[in-house]
């Protein structure tokens, strides 16, 4: 008599249903930034925006310009007409392009494309792995004086150091927004102490197109990581009262790992139990048959 074969394929549909949520645990939903009962929607900021910083190599007539471009809600698109090796890697949310400028020769040359943060399948499988901290309830006293949230995004290793971006989204109230807009519409350019036009003064700050500004703060080594620090002043970082927890909240990788493993273990246990009961039933039938033959 052949025993019926039991498999664990019944668990696959359940696991497939979990995959979208599992993927979201490593990505970022701009419409549902959430921490400590507070939700933010920054989906309107989902477009490329750049800030630039410069390093002077005096007394040499050269300088290094690094342009950091960010699309907070989706991977950056490939730039048209740019050689592949001079563009950001696929999957980049934040990328830095370095160029060497020679003021004596009036020339510019490409130096490097630095992957700061994103989902990189070809760079060690690095995930974005966003970490969100509400500032008002942060463990840091200086943070609690601010309104908004801090967003940390992970990147791959570059030149031996893991890359990371930390963006502080700060609430920009209506009065500040009007002041920024008025300054942006004012005619003329900033001037330095010599009365000459100073274009570099605004290189590290960019208008986000929604009344706010993105500001470059630093790009330096912090512990074992190389961290890009940015400040984003925006009305979308203002709190609107605490909201109840959403059922689609993101779970960490290890939480999902334990759930999937438990599902597999439970399914295997149930299948083994069914098989055991089935064998017991066969043993009982066999015993009854032998007893009948003896009679």
* DSSP strand tally: 12
Which class best fits the helix and strand makeup?
alpha+beta
- Count the DSSP helices: 3
Note the gap between the termini: 23 Å
- Strand-and-helix sequence, N→C? HEEEEEEEEEHEEEH
β-sheet strand percentage: 25-35%
Describe this structure in words.
Helix content is about 25%, strand content about 30%. The chain is an alpha+beta fold and about 300 residues long. The strands form three sheets. Strands 7-8-9-12-11-10 form a six-stranded mixed sheet, with no helix packed on it. Strand 3 and strand 4 form a beta hairpin. The longest helix has about 40 residues, at about 255-295. The chain starts with 11 loop residues before the first helix and ends with a helix. The model is unreliable at about 1-25, about 185-200, about 245-255, about 265-280 and about 290-295 (pLDDT under 50).
Search tags:
disordered N terminus; alpha+beta
Present the secondary structure layout:
Blueprint lengths: L11 H13 L8 E3 L2 E3 L8 E8 L5 E9 L21 E11 L4 E12 L12 E4 L13 E11 L2 E11 L2 H12 L19 E3 L5 E10 L2 E10 L18 H42 L1
Parallel strand pairs: 9-12
Antiparallel strand pairs: 1-2, 3-4, 4-5, 5-6, 7-8, 8-9, 10-11, 11-12
